[in-house]
Amino acid sequence: MRAIVVTDQAAGTAGMKLVERPEPIAAINDVIVMIYASGYVGTELTWPSTWTDRTNRDRTPTIPGHEFAGVVTSLGYGTTGLTVGQRVFGITDWYRDGTLAEYAAIEARNLAPLPGDVDFTVGASLPISGLTAWQGLYDHGHLKGGQTILAHGAAGAVGTMVVQLAREAGAYVIGTGRTSDRQKALEYGAHEFFDLDNDNLEDIGGVDLVFDVIGGDIGKRSAGLIRPGGTIVSVVGPNEAHPINGRAIDFVVEPDRGQLTEIVQRVRDGRLRINIGEISTLDEAITTLNSTKRRLGKPVIRVRS
Ligand SMILES: NC(=O)c1ccc[n+]([C@@H]2O[C@H](COP(=O)([O-])OP(=O)(O)OC[C@H]3O[C@@H](n4cnc5c(N)ncnc54)[C@H](OP(=O)(O)O)[C@@H]3O)[C@@H](O)[C@H]2O)c1
């Protein structure tokens, strides 16, 4: 099969190569999925799991891409609940070969059925951003209607999902980002926009929840905005500061079939807008992923037309 691989950590995306690789085989409880479309997170080549296995041994050459939409082509021993020919979407194991490839082996529990009226490109754009937002807001942030949330990076892939889900939950949403992100953040449902390039973060006052996709100094200063009993949720590692009388949580998104089903249903009934950036073919993907242009939305690689 054709797949994009990386072997050289220092080279970053410039080291990506489109090569022939053996097709994966289905282990216990796996399915093999023919990949139609794959999402990509810009930081993947900095993740330790891209380079080593769970025992810290080199696992290169590695196929990046960890979210996808496609069709089940075979079932592993003992796999139940899915059938050959079924449309599916979801997250793949960080430590296994990913989805910038024609086929991938995935544990069946990590994916969900993709309804027939949802395009593969749309399906591939949702799992990581959608689940990260869902879990950060509800599982970790315990968001409730009437609360105020500060959604950093509100025009980005995760941020646009955070803004929309928080708004649906009845929260007051303050989105942040660069000056040029204002319009997009407001269009996705932020009540207010805060310009991180020009405004003073401390002027925001108190909030119940910070959803941080930026970290560093922004994350640190945001901890000071948390009201008593509030939470700062980070998806970019532990925060350097802890809120006084509040919680600080950092987490890595987990696969969840029920949550994926909720998310795609919201897309179907118009409650959730997708945020897809550049769409490229597998042949074009290396050029796209090496572009120095600012990414506006989730990059999706259309592996099969
Ligand atoms: N822990 C997890 O499970 C998990 C899951 C998903 C994503 N993540 C992480 O979350 C981060 C965001 O992912 P994403 O897919 O949403 O990326 P994205 O689409 O690039 O969104 C991030 C947004 O934040 C903006 N931003 C970053 N630094 C900023 C700053 N200093 N000032 C103003 N705006 C800033 C970005 O603008 P620019 O492009 O101009 O910088 C972009 O609009 C990544 O680091 C990713 O690895 C973690």
Main β-sheet, in a few words?
A: 7 strands, mixed
Span from first to last CA?
15 Å
> How many domain modules?
2
User: What name does CATH use for the topology of the largest domain?
Assistant: Quinone Oxidoreductase, Chain A, domain 1
What string, H for helix and E for strand, traces the elements in order?
EEEEEEEHHEHEHEEHEEHEHE
Number of strands: 15
Mind telling me the CATH class of the largest domain?
Answer: Alpha Beta
Mean of all residue-level pLDDT scores: 97
Percent range for helical residues? 10-25%
User: What would you call the shape?
Assistant: globular
Radius of gyration: 19 Å
Q: What structural category arises from helix and sheet content?
A: alpha/beta
Query: What is the number of helices?
Result: 7
Low-confidence stretches: none
Secondary-structure arrangement, i.e. CATH architecture of the largest domain: Alpha-Beta Complex
SSE map:
Elements: E1 2-5, E2 17-20, E3 30-39, E4 67-75, E5 87-91, E6 103-107, E7 111-113, H1 120-125, H2 127-140, E8 148-151, H3 157-168, E9 172-177, H4 182-187, E10 192-195, E11 207-212, H5 216-223, E12 226-234, E13 247-250, H6 257-268, E14 276-281, H7 282-289, E15 298-302
Parallel strand pairs: 8-9, 8-11, 9-10, 11-12, 12-13, 14-15
Antiparallel strand pairs: 1-2, 3-4, 3-6, 3-15, 4-5, 5-7
Helix pairs in contact: 2-3
The structure holds NADP nicotinamide-adenine-dinucleotide phosphate.
NADP nicotinamide-adenine-dinucleotide phosphate is lined by residues 41-43, 128-129, 132, 153, 155-159, 177-178, 181, 196, 213-214, 218, 235-236, 252-253, 294-295.
